[in-house]
Amino acid sequence: EDELVKEKIAAKNGLEGYAYQMKSTVEDQLKDKISDEDKQSILDKCAETITWLDNNQTAEKDEFEHRQKELEGVCNPIITKLYQGAGGMPGGMPGGAPAGAGGSSGPTIEE
């Protein structure tokens, strides 16, 4: 029973942390790099999620996880598109850049 409570709290905290992190990231770090429409989409979904959290403190673990998947479903495609657009080689290399080129577009694998 304690384990279930622990998992529920972890799911709630994970959702809350993700919502605030995305909100902060869009408002601060990405404010000049993201379109107003995409920014508003993320901010609206974050606000909706935070309001839901405030009104549903006793929700079950699966409800928190479902809400997180919904929020990620809005945020991830926008953030992925943003980093893909910024991560290629200068001049645009057909087929994408080879591993190691483009800087912070994610982890690279050294062979």
Element string (H = helix, E = strand): HHH
Unreliable segments of 5+ consecutive residues: 88-106
What's the shape?
A: elongated
Beta fraction of the residues? under 5%
Taking the sheet with the most strands, its summary is: none
Mean pLDDT over the full residue set? 81
Pairing-aware structural class of the strands and helices?
Answer: mainly alpha
Which properties best describe this structure?
single chain; 111 residues; mainly alpha; 68% helix
Describe, in plain words, how this protein is organized in 3D.
By secondary structure, this protein is mainly α. It is built from three helices and no strands. Helix 1 packs antiparallel against helix 2, helix 1 packs parallel to helix 3 and helix 2 packs antiparallel against helix 3. About 17% of the residues have low confidence.
